[in-house]
Amino acid sequence: MKYLYILIPVFFVGFLSAEINLTKNDEDLLNKYLAGSAEYCKKLKGEAFHFYCKEKILFERDEFILESTRRGNLKRRRSSTKSYFDYQLIQESGKLKERRRLISDKVADVEMDPSELLLSFLSEKAVFGPNSILDQARQSNFNYKILEYKKTKENDLVIIKAIPKIPGKTFFLSAEVYIDKKNFSIRKIVATPVFIKGYENMKRTASYFKTRLFLDCEIRFDQSYKGLFFPTLITITERYKGGPVVNRNTGSKGWEKSKTTFKYYEYRFFDVDTEVKFEN
């Protein structure tokens, strides 16, 4: 998966920043987690597309209209839209495709591209997010390091950071992957996406207001089936911090200009005897 519109490209574990200096033992552990995750991704490729579910997409926007360039005062205008779909990942002519049918009381039950309803982001094949980072064939594209170990009531996790060796060749600048130490399943991905609809406009917004862009994509995998975990929540947040205008009107918390949330629920799984092929 080359692109995540978000992506694609957010949970029960918070952000972690403390890095661990790798000893020889840590390097061995890192290789163990990478090898185990690669096997998990191999299994995911063979099973993950046999399902359908419900999808709710919530798009929230908080726009500022500059009333006075001299004074830097902003008028805030908030809006939001909700859309519901029957979602399925299918195989046609050897290729994987997403299919969505709009659920609405006002519109007939028709297949459609939800990008027609959205103004910024669209998730694409999020179930294969782990493969884009940890698939055996793609591991040579990244540098990895252990950031932290984290225990919850349900899981014993290791958080690994992936940084592309060649910037611009992947959908993110960097990513943190939360891996279950026992079964190597991927439970969460936090990434900074760059191949995303409207990214150039976001950079222009940051330049205009003399502020900094913080773009985050978080994917949670909480739906389990046959030892695999499927996406349940994706959050993409566009936030700006710093600069005289943003600071004056929003303070240190910054300006959350937009937030897109994808929720997946009511999963139904089925078995199909076929082979999966991926597009690069």
What sort of overall outline do the alpha carbons produce when their principal axes are compared? globular
DSSP strand count: 10
Task: State which percent range the strand residues make up.
Answer: over 45%
Overall pLDDT, averaged? 80
Question: Any key phrases for this structure?
Answer:
280 residues; alpha+beta; 17% helix; 45% strand; disordered C terminus
General description of the model:
The chain has 280 residues and is an alpha+beta fold. It has 4 helices and 10 strands. A 10-stranded antiparallel beta sheet has the order 3-2-1-10-9-8-7-6-5-4.
What topology emerges from the helices and strands here?
Layout: H1 24-47, E1 51-68, E2 73-92, E3 95-103, H2 129-134, E4 142-151, E5 156-164, E6 172-180, E7 186-193, H3 199-208, E8 212-225, E9 228-241, H4 244-250, E10 255-269
Antiparallel strand pairs: 1-2, 1-10, 2-3, 4-5, 5-6, 6-7, 7-8, 8-9, 9-10
